[in-house]
Design brief:
By secondary structure, the chain is of the alpha+beta class. It has 12 helices and 8 strands. Strands 3-4-5-6-7 form a 5-stranded antiparallel beta sheet. α4 (about 70-85) packs antiparallel against α6. The longest helix has 30 residues, at about 5-35. The relative contact order is 0.16.
């Protein structure tokens, strides 16, 4: 019995998803391998920040003083505090919107505005301020500044869309009874990305040159099942990911090493899955296999986002930004002209710290 057209389309879509998952899996592995030397440097920066010698250094100092004269931490904390005061003032906004001397309004001829342009500018400034407040911008920005000062790089992701729940007691004017009304509203927001989980295009020297990015999250079985509630998730692919017993990770889990530096015992965790979020170019057939509607115009190049667990693609979407820009902004304490990752205060104080300990 021959297969129906629907069955044929389903098989072709599954094959396309498998090919896409394998391609992105290899691409993520390449970026992880290219970042190993930088991760080793970050571990050295953290040891220096926390005033810890490496095991090899302690072995060489056996029988001698092993006091760590930590001058790095004070300098780093001072840099964090100073930068936070300058960029995140408590008594005013750290941005402003004003019209140009000759403001124009969009239209057929972009005529010079005749109405007062100050009022739209103030309204836009208030709207942006409200969005930043609801998205907890100040807290995320402080975390970003700390990442940049210690490791050399801080990452903000946005704009992203979040579903905010709003609750209000509404009183019926006829009966006088109050009822709790719950509303769901999609709002723009931002979030801080852990530098250890951010893997950009390692061939690029800056984010403007990066063609794609990867972001990793370690999730447990409960969180993996909750992904089924996301709109656009492919349930068959998610079930395969849950049933797969392969615990091989693309990236190294550095949590045990980070705990050892800060003196915290390692914890044996339950099984975890790697959830990878890819942003970058995608072929039209790859998007169609994920359920996205695209045009056949050869002049259109699509960029989008793909969620995958291991090698299983569970969701894809076209980039909502018309510009096709990646939703990541990177801030560095001191720029590195050869790579996206910059240098932090501990790295710049490596030699003075060694002199103090000597």
């Amino acid at each position: 019995m021959s297969a129906t057209p629907e069955q044929t389309d389903t098989v072709q879509a599954e094959e396309a998803l498998q090919v896409l998952g394998q391609k992105l899996h290899r691409l993520a592995q390449d970026q992880v391998s290219a970042r190993q030397a930088i991760e080793t440097r970050w571990l050295s920066d953290l040891r220096q920040y926390h005033g810890e010698y490496t095991p090899d250094e302690l072995a060489r100092m056996k029988g001698r003083s092993s006091v760590y004269v930590n001058i790095t931490r004070n300098k780093t904390r001072a840099a964090i505090a100073r930068l936070s005061d300058m960029l995140l003032p408590n008594d005013e906004r750290n941005f402003g919107i004003k019209p140009t001397p000759l403001p124009t309004v969009p239209g057929d001829a972009d005529q010079t505005a005749t109405q007062d342009a100050d009022q739209p500018a103030r309204a836009m400034e208030a709207q942006i301020s409200d969005d930043l407040e609801e998205g907890q911008y100040t807290g995320h920005a402080r975390d970003l500044i700390q990442d940049a000062c210690i490791l050399g790089k801080g990452i903000l992701k946005g704009p992203i869309i979040v579903n905010r729940t709003r609750r209000a007691w509404m009183t019926d004017p006829m009966t006088g009874q109050s009822v709790l009304e719950v509303r769901q509203a999609f709002r723009p927001s931002i979030e801080r990305v852990d530098p250890w989980d951010f893997f950009p295009d390692m061939s690029a020297q800056s984010m403007s040159e990066a063609e794609f990015t990867f972001e990793r999250k370690l999730i447990n079985r409960k969180q993996l099942r909750e992904l089924a509630d996301l709109p656009g998730v492919i349930p068959e692919q998610l079930r395969r990911a849950l049933e797969d017993d392969d615990e091989g990770f693309i990236a190294n889990d550095r949590r045990d090493e980070l705990r050892a530096i800060t003196g915290v015992d390692t914890v044996t965790n339950a099984k975890r899955w790697e959830l990878w979020e890819y942003w970058g170019p995608l072929d039209k057939e790859e998007l169609r296999a994920c359920g996205c509607e695209v045009e056949d115009d050869p002049l259109i190049e699509y960029t989008g986002s793909v969620l995958m667990v291991g090698r299983y693609v569970i969701k894809a979407a076209i980039n909502p930004l018309d510009s096709g820009d990646l939703p990541y902004s990177v801030f560095t304490w001191e720029e590195d002209s050869s790579a996206i990752f910059g240098f932090g205060v501990p790295y710049l104080m490596r030699q003075p710290q060694k002199v103090a300990n000597a």
